[in-house]
Amino acid sequence: MGVMVEFERRIPTVTTLIRLRAKLGPMAYCNLSVNQLVQFSAKTDAGKRRIIQQQLNPDTFKVQWYQKAKACIRASISQNFDHQPVYDGLAMLAARKAVTKHQLSDKATSIEALERFLDLKVPSILRTMHYTTIRPPDKTVMISDVEITVAPEIVFRGTMGGKKVVGGVKIHICKGTPFDYEQSEQVAAVIYRYLVEKVALPDEKVIPALCLSLDIFGDRIVQAPRDLTRVNRSLDEVCNEVKVHWLAA
Questions:
Q1: For a FRET experiment, which of 1, 34, 117, 175 has its CA 20 to 30 Å from that of 109?
Q2: For residues 150 and 170, what is the distance between their CA atoms, to the nearest angstrom?
Q3: pTM beyond 0.85
Q4: What is the pLDDT of residue 210?
Q5: For 175, which DSSP code?
Q6: 207: closest CA among 186, 188, 220?
Q7: Could you give the 3-state DSSP secondary structure of residue 180?
Q8: Measured on CA atoms in the order 121, 126, 128, 133, is the torsion positive or negative?
Q9: What residue ranges of the chain have pLDDT lower than 70?
Q10: DSSP-derived 3-state class of residue 214
């Protein structure tokens, strides 16, 4: 009896996915950022509903946090992880006047973020290979009928072993809820898919080791795995769940 009840509970999920595809059609999709996507599976049902509601009813005014820190880290990565842009940023932040609670918090966390960045162990290849940054106009990729906004802070083209390669870096600065290793790996895997489908030219190769999730307060830089089967399966499962909650909202 218990098995039958459990089976019956699963039927609406499959049915809902079929209804969702019929309702939305082949070219209308729900949308999440890559950060929301990897946070989704770790949330309670209430938390998942909040993420969906945030997308359906976005804030017209959204406070931007740690923009100076991100800009300095982006400049450093663009220059083969040269630390000078970070030192310059630390000096500017130290001299910046902060009055409001938001300004004080932003300043303190930005300084800590830059100091942590200086201590990160960087993949040696990125300190030695020659690459140039680019700004692809399309920042999204589709995963199981869910449009994911990837928007890596850094996308670059370079050469490795005489071959043209493409890579990207997504920066995550969140002191309260840094990504764990699995979430960082998922971000890196999404970057890989995005670069393969939207950025790489026919004569270019996307290298998993150059698809990086940089989590400042997680103290880690995680590469996309060479074998993406397991991670892609988990991403598909999360996206299927997203669609169920999206339809129910």
A1: 34
A2: 8
A3: yes
A4: 96
A5: S
A6: 188
A7: coil
A8: negative
A9: 1-29
A10: strand
